[in-house]
Structure formats: C-alpha cells, structure tokens
Design goal:
Blueprint lengths: L2 E8 L7 H17 L6 E5 L19 H15 L4 E10 L2 E10 L2 E7 L23 E4 L2 E7 L7 H8 L4 E6 L7 H16 L3 E5 L1 E4 L2 E4 L3 E3 L5 E4 L6 E8 L15 H19 L4 E5 L4 H14 L4 E5 L7 H14 L2 E4 L3 H10 L11 H22 L1 E5 L3 H6 L12 E2 L6 H19 L10 H5 L19 H12 L5 H5 L5 H13 L1 H5 L29
Parallel strand pairs: 1-2, 2-3, 7-8, 8-9, 15-16, 15-18, 16-17, 18-19
Antiparallel strand pairs: 1-14, 3-4, 4-5, 6-7, 9-12, 10-11, 12-13
Helix pairs in contact: 1-2, 5-6, 5-11, 6-7, 6-11, 13-15
Pfam family, one: NAD_synthase
GO molecular function: ATP binding; glutaminase activity; NAD+ synthase (glutamine-hydrolyzing) activity; NAD+ synthase activity
InterPro entries: C-N_Hydrolase, C-N_Hydrolase_sf, Gln-dep_NAD_synthase, NAD/GMP_synthase, NAD_synthase, Rossmann-like_a/b/a_fold
Length: about 550
C-alpha cells in the first residue's frame, strides 16, 4: 500500500524579507527531502503569506511587490522537483490584490487559491488590502483530491463544505494565526468539528515567531477524519513536522504533544516576542530600569530568557523615596540572573531640574509634577545608555497600569518595546511564581531558587515616587481592578453592565473613566507583546478626542 508524507513547515519568517524568506523555504525543503524515505511521495506545506511574512501591512502597497514575488515564485517552482510544495504569497491580478496560496509539483504550478474569508476584526485588517476570492481549490495529488484553504476560511463553514462537495478528501489549511491565551484549544476544537462533520482529515500549518505586538505560536497540527488531533508541532519554536499517510489517507505516524499549561504558554509567548523584536530589528541587547519591584523583576527574567544574560543590563536609579528593601531586592534579582547591574542615583539630576524650574514653580504646591519628574529623569538616563551602547530600552509597565494611565509619559513609558503591556497585574504575580518554579526545577535541588524574591511578590506594589506610597492608595485592589478592566476592555461591557456583576459603582465609574482618559498615553506607548484577545494597539482603536458619555 502506497504511503506518502506531508511536512508541516513551521517557519519563523521575517516580514518584508522576501529573499531571506525564500532561503528559509529552501532550507526547510532541503531538510524535509533529506529526512524523507526515497519511496514516499512528499508534500511540504508553508504558512500563510510565507514569502513576505505576516502581517505585511502597507508593504503590500509597494509598487515593486509583484515583480519581487514573481521572481521568488520562479525559485519556488525550481524547489518543487520531485515533490509538492504549498506556499502562501500576495498576488496582483487585473488590478486586484489577493492573499494567495499556490501549489507546485515537479517544477510546475498546478493550483492557485485566493483566500475567501478576509478577517477584519481584532488585529486583522485584510479587507484594507485584499480582494476576496470566490473559487474553491481542489487539486490532484497521488490519486487523491486535496482542498486548499487559508486561515480564516476554516473559521467559517462554507469553504470546507464546498471543498468537500468539490471532491476534497483532505484539507490543507495554511495560517498566520497569532497567539492569545486559550487560542490553541479553540483551533483544535474548531478543526476537530470540521473533520468529524465532513469525514476528512485536516492539515493545519501555522507560522511561528514575533512580529511587533503579535506573536505566532506555531503549534501546527493534523486532525484525522474522526476529529482526533493525531500530530502536533511544538509551540513557540520552528519545526518540521513530518506526518505519514497511507493510501486511504489514514495517519500512520502520530506525533502527539500535550499543550503547554496556560502560564507556560503565556510566558513563552512573552519571551519569543521580546527575542524576535530584538533580533529582527538588530539591537545589540536590552537595558531596563530595575526598581526592585515585581514588574521590572519579571521583565528582567523575560529579557534574560529571550537573549541571554550577557546582553542584558539592569540599572537601579534610586531617589530619596527608594526603600532599602527595593535596593536589596534589585541587587538580588540582578545577581540571580547574572546580568550587568549598575546603580545610577537620579537625585543630582532631579535637583538640577528643580533649580532650573524654581521660578516657574514659585508659589505652586508640590503635586504629581515632582513625581513625574523623577520618572522622567530615569527615562533620560535609560535612553542615554541606549543611544551610547545600541541597547534597546524595554519598559516594565503592565496592562493594569497602562489601562488606567498609571504611568508617566517620557518617564517610565520611555522605551522601544514592552514585555508586559498586555499582562494584567494579577497575571504578573502568577508569572513571577511560575518563573521561580522553573528556576527551582532547573536548580536540581529541593531548595527553591528565587529569581524573583518572595517578598517582592507579596509586598504591596508601589511606584515609590512619594513617601509611603502604594498603588492601592489611588487604585482598587488589583484582583478587583483587573476584573473590571477585563470586562471593559476585552468584554466591551458597559459601566452599568459591570456594576450589575457586583462591583462597587464608584470603582467601576472611576476605573472606566481613567481608561477613557488615558488613551492619549497609550497612543504614545511602545509596542508590546499581545497575549489577550484584545490588547492595546491594533486591537483597540478609540479616539483620543471624543465626547462619549460612559454608562449603559
């Protein structure tokens, strides 16, 4: 009985790097061929828009795009000698641009399919660029009929049903599906239902890697005709998953992997997002302000896990309100991870600013201006180090703070990237404990190795910009705040609806007002990793200037 192999090529493409992506495709094909049995037919499948990377945004409008793609596809054709290759790319035809997938067999293109369902929600805006396809694509392969679909197509019924009606015995679906918590389980359930309903196996190929705020988690997989997930590629890493089928399209080589626990998946997404932003943009390393608090401690751990301790510098910038505990904890955190650690007091700089502003501030009482000035002194110091050393400043603020504007423009918001931008404070606590657990497991002893000291996790959070200051002086407790924020931001619930959930009216009204008022800050914040179904950035686009009245 004839057997054949399909290789799910889970590749970390770089947006806009057509030549580099072509090299990645070529390398993957060479490896897939080298590891394939000579007597087995081979199909190698790459992800959505793999030639240009996803999402290419307005690069799709560049006048030289079509010529570059045509040149690259000539090389793809030559790579298909004695095998079948499926590649995604943008394609212009009769003045219209399509999100396309093509199939090559032994040097000839045998099929081309234009994506039929173009997502235009959350982080997606494909209708800005692409024209909707209107044809089913079913191509012949080894006596079988294979249906070809692209990403969003499988989130609807008709592309699969119509492919089945056209004779498809197997569906190949290529994707650029970004991570958010719980997304992998949604994919598995969705495709399992399709497979069971239409009695055919589905091959799902996703890309992997970070692209600005989006992180693609890979986790490509195959479901059989019974809806069982029978083969899985790893999450958060490049991989070639080879799956063998027999002549009746039964999977002969199962590669099952347990999905990562949610905290592990979130943490690895943050690490991958930071790593790829640094590496793909050519930074030498990372510098960050280490306050001794939990946010900067977790950010430091993520940075080290992303690019290694030798390329990370932590800077403690104390002021007169900085506690001795914070000084001690910052050093413990830096020492535990083995990073370069500097102490640069900001008091002389602050005093110089206050002296220069003495007449301007005459007769005016001290307020948050002086607090913000401390943060801005720190921002200036970090940016100077960044400019001099070629290190990128990574900010340390979390989603709870960014939601309510608990951050200083041109101060602690200064930086090129944010690891925790979409991470609520309550999740920061959980991730910190998770990272300590990993350290303990790696330590090889029963004694817990604390990357983040326990008292940093348990003590009341504080910006330490004023005497005896703690966050809950001006905010509800984080377990309450984060629930309100999640209902308002991810759930798009009204103020009245959130109050009906049992929260105090004054808390809901105040928190939602702060969210609305802080839009101008978020527009000026650095890009950061997205881990929820609605992060700040591409996901949520509210006008800064508006007269909307919060309520029902």
């Amino acid at each position: 009985m004839q057997q054949f192999s399909i290789v799910l090529a889970q590749v970390n493409f770089k947006v806009g790097d057509i030549d580099g992506n072509l090299e990645r495709i070529s390398s993957a094909i060479a490896e897939a061929k080298a590891n394939n049995d000579a007597d087995k037919a081979l199909m190698v499948v790459f992800s959505e828009l793999g030639l240009i990377g996803y999402p290419p945004e307005d690069l799709l409008l560049r006048p030289s795009l079509q010529h570059r793609i045509e040149t690259a596809l000539q090389h793809v054709s030559s790579l298909s000698e004695n095998i079948t290759v499926v590649v995604g790319y943008p394609w212009r035809e009769q003045g219209q641009l399509f999100n396309m997938a093509g199939v090559w067999q032994s040097g000839e293109q045998v099929a081309q399919y234009a994506k039929r369902c173009l997502p235009n929600y959350q982080v997606f805006d494909e209708q800005r660029y692409f024209t909707t396809g209107d044809d089913v694509c079913v191509f012949e392969w080894l006596g079988h009929k294979v249906g070809l679909t692209i990403c969003e197509d499988v989130w609807h019924e008709h592309p699969i049903a119509e492919s089945k009606a056209a004779g498809a015995e197997l569906i190949v679906n290529i994707n650029a599906s970004p991570f958010h918590a719980g997304k992998l389980q949604q994919r598995h359930k969705l495709l399992a239902n399709h497979a069971k309903r239409h009695k055919l196996p589905i091959v799902y190929v996703n890309q992997v890697g970070g692209q600005d705020e989006l992180v693609f988690d890979g986790a490509s997989f195959v479901v059989d005709a019974n809806g069982e997930v029978v083969a899985c590629a790893p999450e958060h890493e490049s991989a070639l998953l080879r799956v063998e089928f027999d002549a009746s399209l039964q999977v002969q080589s199962e590669h099952k992997l347990l999905a990562k626990p949610e905290l592990a998946s979130i943490y690895d997404t943050l690490v991958l997002g930071v790593r790829d932003y640094i590496e793909k943009n050519g930074f030498k390393g990372i510098v960050l302000g280490l306050s001794g608090g939990i946010d900067s401690a977790l950010t430091l751990a993520i940075a080290v896990d992303a690019i290694g301790k030798d390329r990370v510098e932590a800077v403690m910038m104390p002021f007169k309100y900085t506690s001795s505990m914070s000084m001690e904890d910052a050093k413990l955190e830096a020492d535990a991870l083995g990073v370069s650690y500097k102490i640069l007091p900001i008091e002389p700089m602050y005093d110089a600013f206050m002296l220069a502003l003495k007449d301007e501030f005459s007769g005016l009482a001290a307020d948050t201006t002086e607090e913000n000035l401390q943060a801005r002194c720190r921002g200036v110091m970090l940016m100077a180090i960044s400019n001099k050393k070629g290190y990128m400043v990574i900010t340390t603020g979390n989603k709870s703070e960014m939601a309510v504007g608990y951050a200083t423009l041109y101060g602690d918001m200064v930086g090129g990237y944010s690891a925790l931008k979409d991470v609520y404070k309550t999740i920061v606590f959980q991730l910190s404990r998770y990272r300590n657990e990993i350290a303990a497991e790696q330590g090889g002893s029963d004694e817990v190795t604390e990357i983040i000291p326990e008292r940093v996790i348990t003590r009341p959070p504080s910006a330490e910009l004023a005497p005896d200051q703690v966050d809950e002086d001006s905010l509800p407790p984080y377990d309450i705040l984060d629930q309100i924020l999640e209902y308002y931001i991810e759930g798009d619930m009204s103020v009245d609806g959130i109050i009906a959930k049992g929260f105090a009216s004054e808390d809901v009204t105040r928190v939602t007002r702060l969210v609305d008022l802080s839009e101008y800050k978020r527009r000026q914040a650095p890009v950061g990793v997205r881990i929820t179904s609605r992060g700040f950035g591409r996901d949520r686009r509210y006008p800064i200037t508006n007269g909307w009245k919060a309520g029902s």
